[in-house]
From TrEMBL:
Topology term for the membrane: Multi-pass membrane protein
Family affiliation: Belongs to the heme-copper respiratory oxidase family.
Start and end residues of each Cytochrome oxidase subunit I profile domain: 14-460
Pathway noted in the entry: Energy metabolism; oxidative phosphorylation
Annotated InterPro entries: Cyt_c-like_dom (IPR009056), Cyt_c-like_dom_sf (IPR036909), Cyt_c_oxase-like_su1_dom (IPR023616), Cyt_c_oxase-like_su1_sf (IPR036927), Cyt_C_Oxase_1 (IPR000883), Cyt_c_Oxase_su1_BS (IPR023615), Cyt_c_oxidase_cbb3_su1 (IPR004677), Cyt_c_oxidase_monohaem-su/FixO (IPR003468)
PANTHER family xrefs: CYTOCHROME C OXIDASE SUBUNIT 1, CYTOCHROME C OXIDASE SUBUNIT 1 HOMOLOG, BACTEROID
Organism in which the protein naturally occurs: Shivajiella indica
Recorded superkingdom: Bacteria
Needed cofactors: Cu(2+); heme b
Cellular localization per UniProt: Cell membrane
EC number: 7.1.1.9
Record's protein name: cytochrome-c oxidase
Enzyme class: translocase
Pfam families: COX1 (PF00115), FixO (PF02433)
Amino acid sequence: MPGTTLEQFSYDNKIVKYFGVATIAWGLVGMLVGVIAATQLFLPEANLGNPYTTFGRIRPLHTNAVIFAFVGNAIFAGIYYSMPRLLKAPMWSKALSWVNFWGWQLIILLAAITLPLGITTSKEYAELEWPIDILIALVWVAFGANMIGTLIKRREKHMYVAIWFYLASFVTVAVLHIFNSLALPVSFLKSYSAYAGVQDALVQWWYGHNAVAFFLTTPFLGLMYYYLPKAANRPVYSYKLSIIHFWSLIFLYIWAGPHHLLYTALPEWAQVLGVVFSVMLIAPSWGGMVNGLLTLRGAWDKVRVDPVLKFMVVAVTAYGMSTFEGPMLSLKNVNAIAHYTDWIVAHVHIGGLGWNGFFTFAMLYWLWPRMWKTNLYSTKLATTHFWMGTIGIIFYALPMYVAALTQSLMWKEFSEAGRLAYPNFLETVIQIVPMYMLRAFGGLLYLSGAFLMVYNMVKTAQQGKFVAEEADEAPALKPSVSHEGEFWHRAWERKPVFFTIMATVAILIGGAVEIIPTLLVKSNVPTISSVQPYTPLELQGRDLYISHGCVGCHSQMIRPFRSETERYGEYSKAGEFVYDRPFLWGSKRTGPDLHRVGGKYPDSWHYYHMVDPESMSPGSLMPPYPWLSTNIMDHSDLPAKIRTMQKLGVPYPDGYDAQANADLMLQAEQIVANLKASGVEVLPESEIVALIAYLQRLGTDIKKTTASNP
């Protein structure tokens, strides 16, 4: 406008560059660990014969590296570039930007150190121990404060749709992380969950499902609403559709967590709520996909020649596929087939490799030439990367679907005599080995494409000149005044703090309705009088089981299906888990369920099975754990563990912490005597003794009585 004074300012590209480089570096590490883990499933030797590189330890390392290091850094890079430009203002605080960067890299480094050492809470996507959890909360708050500060100092009156998603992601991840991570510390690197059994399972999957929603989905939808129109040079297809998409998505998503726990000991009403809201989710999810793809109207000719748009189209399509499959998997009849199989692995990776991975690649290919003021070094290499990645996803996912159907059909098959057709779990494992090989090849292809991208990025940077501070100008924001007859959402967009509060209310409703009754109403978790707290040795063995990541391959939840009760024994009851902190129901059966394994085999069987699995289970793909028989377990922290459990309500007698070590040795000596009678000599302090004690306890309480006292 004539006479308007323009204010001069600049955008900080340096922080974007740093987050971009971190995205690429950690992405390569996370994908490489993933390929190693995939190889370990058909080649036990790839576990490398030490405690630190076994599948149980590196699987959470892979998931954390890909989700929080690769995708997390990509989110920050995308937001720190787009948000200032959308608001016509630099980020509020450069200091907070760098606290965000270096704090996040420190968190990733601490995860990379602690997880292979077995320092873990074992909660899916939340394995890090309490000091790191506190650091995550502090760094996340620094990121959020920087966003909100920028919003307050903005020069643009309205908040563009991408920023709605950024804000909702910030507040929801903060709420999820804090509530799920509540725990009582035993020591500097050990804690016990504030929740137990059924309650812990519900809170964990309220977090776990919504970590996927508000870390892997909503921030990327925000990025889609900025980068896809930019790359296509087209406006977003529909503003009103984006409003419906946003509010319905954040409200509905938060309810869907219980669909991870269908047919388990979770109360039926919570399972039903999870199913209903999961099915409803398909509408807003596909609304977002449609809005993204229709933004490309009139630009499809560019898709043939522009690798950035190629990646984006497949990314948005993968998002659509995943968000169709998710509601379908939450239907109880489909879940009965798919749960605990490789179908879930395929589903997660369509989203991870296709939606998150491909959109990150597209964004980086778009950003690099602009920050270095040059052209992409090689469109041909980027297109090659696209096809390698696409074929890699196909080689990854299709074999997993075949493996899943094979697993489910074989597990549930009965012979004409009415017995299980494949009673030995290993029969199924051996059948799907070729599928695991193809999956690893697909992962290797995807990783190879990412290495091509690194070369392309380096060459692009070398031929350009990096612009650390990008100058811009805009008029100052005028004081907000009432706009008669203004569309209600337009009014909300002028009020970022109010908007953030409304988004917070939307996400809190579902969580509160599901979690509060489960924590406060006792009838949701009927107790069983015969279920007693773990003995000191069993508690130590359980912690060792958790440390080795055994829950990554073995579930402890027998569902009420004939095929499962015939194979494993009596189905699992809610009251059996009241002392389980954390719960260990598992998400995948690479090996058989263990909930009724107690007393099924002699102590010597467990000893030989851990030291050399093939000696007890010919053809087994489980790695050997020979160090368990020689490693001496330090029990000095046992009194502190007992005291912590007492504070959490576990009914150990007063002063039992002073007696615990003596009781531990009595039970250990009994197991040592049993082993000696079978020709095996071990010390009572060895790790294998504690692990055997825990395994022999599993599921034995229910055999005494099934009377419940609601």
